[in-house]
Design goal:
Helix content: 55-70%
Structural class: mainly alpha
Radius of gyration: 20 Å
Strand order of the largest sheet: 1-3-2
Largest sheet: 3 strands, antiparallel
Distance between the termini: 17 Å
Shape: elongated
Length: 147
């Protein structure tokens, strides 16, 4: 049977959620200042972060972004109009559509990624500590001030 959640656990969970929300707010603001939406930033990062040597299929991008396929198509349409991405039909099967970044897309993503790296350096230690404390909740050897 699960142990009840203690006041200290609620405080740690709330602190962790707040720290994550602060980072997400930073990310959303940075994307808008770069002239793109937060979802477009997520798409650029997903495409650039796809394993080397593999092209990002539209269906894989939809899964990565947790969007429906038609919503992803609309997102990519807007991004293509902004010259952030290009779509390419499959060579062997033209029903498959692959998405890649344009030079402009790479540039926007690179600027955002540098800013995100710096923000993570700033808040990373706090997030790591909170995550470590949360992962110890309920463990027999957990310090008394965590549980």
């Amino acid at each position: 049977m699960a142990q009840p959640i203690s006041k200290a656990e609620y405080e740690k969970l709330a602190s962790f959620r707040y720290a994550l929300r602060q980072f997400l707010h930073f990310s959303e603001t940075a994307a808008r200042e770069a002239g793109i939406t937060p979802r477009q930033h997520q798409a650029l990062l997903a495409i650039a972060g796809h394993p080397a040597g593999e092209q990002m299929m539209m269906s894989a991008l939809a899964e990565h972004l947790q969007l429906r396929h038609h919503t992803t198509v609309e997102l990519i349409d807007r991004m293509a109009a902004q010259e952030l991405v290009v779509r390419e039909p499959g060579v062997e099967d033209r029903r498959y559509v692959f998405v890649s970044l344009t030079p402009r897309g790479h540039d926007v993503l690179a600027r955002l990624s540098v800013a995100h790296r710096e923000e993570l350096k700033r808040i990373g230690p706090q997030l790591n500590l909170l995550l470590q404390e949360l992962s110890m909740i309920g463990e027999p050897d957990a310090p008394a001030n965590i549980a």
